[in-house]
Design goal:
Layout: E1 11-14, H1 20-31, E2 35-40, H2 43-55, E3 59-65, H3 71-85, E4 90-93, E5 99-100, H4 108-136, E6 140-145, H5 158-177, E7 183-188, H6 196-200, E8 202-203, H7 211-222, H8 227-239, E9 244-245, H9 249-260, H10 262-280
Parallel strand pairs: 1-2, 1-4, 2-3, 4-6, 5-8, 6-7, 7-9
């Protein structure tokens, strides 16, 4: 997409639009005059963000409550959008879920759900919305929201990282595959963001009501940026056709530390893992 002067008139799809980063980004785009296409599995929350976007003067050309892990549902929505409106200009894969745990506490469903929603969900959207964008020949942009857990080895994030590293790798390949079509690709790597996901994240084998656990979750949340701040960073990164879009300086610094000082990084991460495990005191899965 290069460096567009504005988002006005751009046809933009956002998944996960009902809350958090997705909602904040949708409303920022509404203020900037984009034509919105919104999805979320939360039908009530989706209706609210549609109303809020329209109150800002935006056109919400289509919206539908769906689960991105359901390929048939995503494909049907894509068919309807393209039949009525043609190819889109920007596709933003923001929907995602999170679960933490060790190999002894994570269930098979934890592993599967991370891949189904966080990796296959964006793939379903890419499969159905990117080919028409390529065929239209107008260029465009694809945004995939990965995570800090998609670039560094955060404790207990194996299942989550499996999906988020996969999404980052897919994005890197598409960055070059789609360049000849003038379609930019960006991957967002947020750290902590003040969304419902922080307070509802599944921690396998851990009692979320334990005051010690609540203290650590609150400490994590204390470093979080607002969804609006994250949305601003995303839109600025898209305008500059950045590949990696950071929403906070600490993640940029940690990733730089990993790349230039692997041995100190690995020592530090082992120590962080020990502290994390002592703090949360997991119970083995039975």
């Amino acid at each position: 997409m290069g460096q567009p002067e504005s988002f006005a008139g751009k046809r933009v799809l956002l998944t996960g639009a009902a809350s958090g980063i997705g909602r904040a980004t949708a409303l920022k785009l509404a203020e900037l005059g984009a034509e919105l296409y919104l999805t979320d599995r939360d039908a009530e929350g989706l209706d609210i963000v549609v109303s809020d976007a329209e109150a800002l003067g935006a056109t919400v050309a289509a919206h539908r409550a769906l689960d991105v892990s359901d390929f048939e549902a995503v494909s049907a929505f894509a068919d309807d959008v393209h039949a009525a409106n043609g190819a889109l200009d920007i596709v933003m894969n923001i929907a995602g879920i999170s679960a933490w745990g060790t190999v002894s506490t994570l269930s098979h469903q934890h592993w599967k759900s991370m891949i189904d929603v966080n990796l296959m969900g964006p793939i379903h959207v890419i499969e159905t919305f990117l080919p028409p964008m390529v065929a239209a020949g107008r260029g465009g942009h694809l945004v995939n929201v990965s995570s800090a857990a998609g670039i560094v080895a955060l404790p207990w994030h194996a299942a989550y990282s499996a999906s988020k590293y996969g999404l980052r790798g897919l994005s890197e390949v598409l960055r070059f595959d789609l360049a000849r079509h003038r379609i930019g690709v960006s991957v967002v790597v947020p750290g902590a963001v003040k969304t419902g996901l922080v307070q509802t994240v599944q921690i396998a084998g851990v009692d979320r009501e334990d005051p010690r656990v609540a203290k650590w979750v609150d400490r994590f949340a204390g470093h979080a940026v607002s969804p609006e701040h994250a949305a601003d960073k995303i839109l600025a990164g898209v305008q500059r056709n950045r590949f990696l879009i950071y929403t906070s300086a600490d993640i940029r610094a940690l990733y730089a530390f990993k790349r230039v000082a692997w041995w100190p990084y690995s020592v530090a991460m082992r120590q962080v893992n020990v502290l994390f495990t002592r703090a949360l005191r997991p119970r083995p899965r039975t």
